[in-house]
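anyone seen this seq b4? input:
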Amino acid sequence: MLTLHAVADGSAVLVDGEHVAALGTAEELADAHPSARVRRWPGILTPGLLNPYGPEILESTYHPDPREAETYGTVPIGGERAREIFRADPSRLGASARRGVQRLFAHGTVALAGELRAKPVLEVAQRSGLVFGGRPDRLPGPVSLSPTPLVLLPGLAVGGPARFAVFDVADRAELVRRGASTCVATVIGGRMVYRAR
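predicted toks r here
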């Protein structure tokens, strides 16, 4: 099924399965493909972000289950406390990584850098559809779901993978200023893996 993702500036991407079928204006693509399902988003559509902190976010941080809020709170836990949680119950690593991947998706991340060494974490990342990129020689600042500077992937291409993110900002300058928490949708392999409520 064809899906047309249209954003506020009038640009759009037409998705057919896992691939980009066409790029253009929302009006042109809607006229050429009247049977396409249309999703309208505020802001801008980008090829998505690469987060250079894959191991730090998925292997060295505990992402609490909402049902654990009374014990662990709701924000990610790093450092020695995370290591204690994983030592006490190694089975938590995979479940934590699944929740971590969801947090990455909520920040427009479609690619990770850094070597994942824990098998359950690597399996979660691979199943999620995240792609793996090279880690820069110098990492930007502290570990973050919205690192500074943001690392945007190369542009979308017709026939290429339908992998992108939509941010509720006016332009890339505002995205850089406000950060990746402005994400409203993330698509990987043509599937919407995150949508803001």
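The two ends are 24 Å apart (CA to CA). The chain has two domains: 2-48+153-195, 50-133. kinda curious what u guys think
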